């Protein structure tokens, strides 16, 4: 009986270790890249005379059959094969026999996984860029419609100066454009092939790494085999890029939550992207923007996790780096669905122009214009103008008016220094004039906003 119990325990431990050691249940995500890399490797081996033409053709056809089986759901993923590389190679050998056993010549799973994973990341760099481009295009469309729509610009979440809503949308377009450029830069920097690095030191076989690089769409092979099999900078970069993009997503999500509240009522989101309360039927909750905001923490966690995995790893390959993929897969899926949903939320939101413009009459948004007028027209030191403006704001408060609604006499009576002020000041304090006065490059005036839109439209055509 003890022997039987020991055997059961050994079998149980073996199963646990298989589950602990295997990556097949998550790295199967890389099947397409693995097959793509293997076909390129077989073609190079054939060109170099290491495989015959017949063997290479059998391998390539067999790999395409495996791909079809996976995509049609016929392929059975099993812990017995540990990872996607062994699963594909095992099934290939079942299909084509002896040639399948020759495929792994002049490579290791170390360079194979580095290549597959890099191909995946490069593919996602490109596809996420396209999603960002579509989102930017939607921001530009909204901006185009609202180059004269007033909205209170805020600092510290307090009313500051009048903006136009198109300008506000362009601020987000600029954020996401930087994100686009980060993914683009990462693609270029990491577009080098590890394939042929083998375990860590290259291979004695007469291979052509430049050929496989070209076949797979890389610029050239990586320069050092040891670095190549242990490098995960490309994975860290996409995690950082995703984290930064999601941070930007969280910022517009927060504004959408605020803007759709009763206190603001600046926008109304489509019912598709909001839900009613379970007990309060009158409420419409901004669940989708809240989730967009919340998922940012998730991708931050994936970035920190991989940084922690890579910390202190000696060269070259270590099993620790098996932990490099799940976080990347998760972050990629998170940003893909987040960008898709955010694009639709912005595209379908209804802008309440009247509410936005009414809110501009709260907080004396054109007060700075009075100070600027005194500096420019009266040659007054700014600090003196600042304190005089405070008196005018106090006067407006006492009359329960916004500073933009004061008459010339009311302005003059606020401070002795203003008793002879030009009637032009009334025009300067007008909210729309205040917005348009900020006509410096990058400013909020309608003229500058339209120019910024034109620049983006040109960029979108080239990107």
From TrEMBL:
First and last residue of the signal peptide: none
- Report domain Argininosuccinate lyase C-terminal positions: 365-436
Give GO terms: molecular function aspect only: argininosuccinate lyase activity
- Name the source's superkingdom: Bacteria
Question: In which pathway is this protein known to take part?
Answer: Amino-acid biosynthesis; L-arginine biosynthesis; L-arginine from L-ornithine and carbamoyl phosphate: step 3/3
Q: Which residues form the Fumarate lyase N-terminal domain?
A: 12-301
GO cellular component terms, alphabetically, are: cytosol
Under catalytic activity, the entry for this protein gives: 2-(N(omega)-L-arginino)succinate = fumarate + L-arginine
- Which keywords does the record carry? Amino-acid biosynthesis, Arginine biosynthesis, Cytoplasm, Lyase
User: Where is this protein found?
Assistant: Cytoplasm
**What InterPro entries does UniProt report for this protein, alphabetically?**
Arg_succ_lyase_C, Argininosuccinate_lyase, Fumarase/histidase_N, Fumarate_lyase_fam, Fumarate_lyase_N, L-Aspartase-like
Q: What is its EC number?
A: 4.3.2.1
Cytoplasm in keyword set: yes
Please give the biological process terms from Gene Ontology that the record holds: L-arginine biosynthetic process via ornithine
> Would the keyword Oxidoreductase be found if you checked this record's keyword annotation?
no
State the Pfam families in the record. Answer: ASL_C2, Lyase_1
Q: HAMAP family from the entry? A: Arg_succ_lyase
Q: Which PANTHER family match?
A: ARGININOSUCCINATE LYASE
* Family of this protein: Belongs to the lyase 1 family. Argininosuccinate lyase subfamily.
Protein name as annotated:
Argininosuccinate lyase
Record organism: Halarcobacter ebronensis
Q: What is the lineage of its organism?
A: Bacteria, Pseudomonadati, Campylobacterota, Epsilonproteobacteria, Campylobacterales
The encoding gene:
argH
